[in-house]
Amino acid sequence: MEFELFLTRLVQGINNGAIYAFLALALVCTYRGSKALNLAQGELAMICTFVSWSLAANGVPLPLAILGGVVVGGLSGAAIERTLIRPLGRDAHYSVLLVCVGLFLAINALAGFIWGGDPQSFPAVVPDAPDDFVPVMGVRLRYQQLVILVVLLVLVAALYAVFRYTRFGLSMRAAASNPDSASLVGVRVNRVNAWGWVLAGAVGALLGPLIAPSTTLSTSMFFTFIIYACAAATVGGFDSPIGAVIGGLFIGVTENLVASYVGFIGDSLKLTVALVILLVVLMVKPSGLLGTREVERV
Amino acid sequence: MSLELQGVSAGYGAGDVLHEISLDVRPGEVVVILGANGAGKTTLMRAVSGVIPRRGRILFEGKDISRTGPEQIVRLGLAQVPQGRGTFVDLTVEENLRTGALSRRDSARVNEDLDRWYTTYPRLAERRRQKAGLLSGGEQQMLAVSRAMMSRPRLLLCDEPSLGLSPRLTQELFASLRSINEEWDMSMLIVEQNAAIALGIATRGYLLEVGTIARAGSADELSDSDAVRAAYLGY
């Protein structure tokens, strides 16, 4: 009985962690190339989810509606990179961060303007009634949560394979590692970085419709997730997709177990647990668990 | 003519570093550009490879490339070994070499070339799976040269290849540049502070002083010239 409870809490942690990891994956995609921490990533995902919702509400089959949102996400990513990020130049880290904060507010306001402030319910891609779960060792694995986890794992495996084994991936990694050398060997660095934003926009737009059935669709649905995602990416290493996933799951599981077993923390101090993990990682290993340490030979 | 510069000026923002430079490299030649720190040697390299904006005419095999970007220039057959080697430190040695072939379309023959450079530099072969940032300075320089050669260029620019290398490694490196020149009939433009060793493999040379060509001549003429001796050879 004790053990079953523990497993249930573990699975809850994994479910939350998968969401953090998913969004962190999108953060990693832009960070690798442009070195931009896109704080507006969650808002971009949110507005794309509204697009999917509108499509679905107008009779488009749900999978196609989600695909529509994903396409909008990718295109928006490219547009943002081209018009707001690239003109600032390669080393304008703080300006880029400020632009992202501005973008956060702008997208949030735009979504409120178009779709209003009321939360909407979002249809689930798989049956999501109370009895739609697989029981494993007494723990309920809900279909919807399994879908998120599976999509996440497939995505990270695909990204890893692309980065590791394709010419395009090699170009991306070269551009991230040393932009000047990369352009000397023929990599079109700006174009490669733009693809990072396309990927990020699409990944975020895929996450939104997967979580919206349980969080409900609203302009504030990503507010806390983006903080968790930043923490996950920091823990895992901002330039490592696999690190982002490990970081996300680690934070999700740890905060849930701590909140369950340490009396005074409970649900109200959950986010604090994530921030403590973040702080410890920053002090002990600033580049994250799997991130690239900045080394320079002089 | 492999490379021809006609009245090229370039700089960074405020004011020019290079003033109306004219020089040429004939096919198969090794041309060396000597100059002190701050003479504009690296700026010259960056102007030719398209990394910085420049004015004047730069002809590569007769084609004007003075408005072409670096990504395109390498595709035309002009590769650069950048100053400080420009290693992709967090990629493996083999991945670094493969980036050199990113500009190529004939991916089937890339592996052949890879083996060729592993044979030339066995130390790279031993460390092919290691992160390139862990290589010694000399090994990174070999890597930079082979990476540039992986694009199958017809003209190789080398920016201060001896930088940070011991005298023995510098000797080895220049010996291998000479054999690349001979085996591949590779035209080369080398910028170097170490005049003695660079003139040793060069056909001709130019002396760059505060952004202008102060002197030009065959390698022998430059070695014998009092000005070069006093300033760069130290005897």
| Biggest sheet statistics of chain A | 2 strands, antiparallel
Output the CATH topology of chain A. Answer: ABC transporter involved in vitamin B12 uptake, BtuC
The number of distinct β-strands of chain B equals: 10
Mean pLDDT of chain B: 92
Helix-strand category of chain B = alpha/beta
How many strands, what sense, and barrel or not for the largest sheet of chain B? 6 strands, mixed
The proportion of strand residues of chain A reads under 5%
Count of individual helical segments of chain A: 11
CATH superfamily of the domain at 3-86 and 154-233 in chain B: P-loop containing nucleotide triphosphate hydrolases
The CATH C-level class name of the domain at 3-86 and 154-233 in chain B? Alpha Beta
H/E element sequence of chain B: EEEHEEHEHHHHEHEHEEHH
Shape of chain A: globular
What proportion of the residues of chain B is helical, as a percent range? Answer: 25-40%
Subcellular location (chain A): Cell membrane
Protein name (chain A): Branched-chain amino acid ABC transporter permease
InterPro entries (chain A): ABC_transp_permease, BCAA_transport_permease
Family (chain A): Belongs to the binding-protein-dependent transport system permease family. LivHM subfamily.
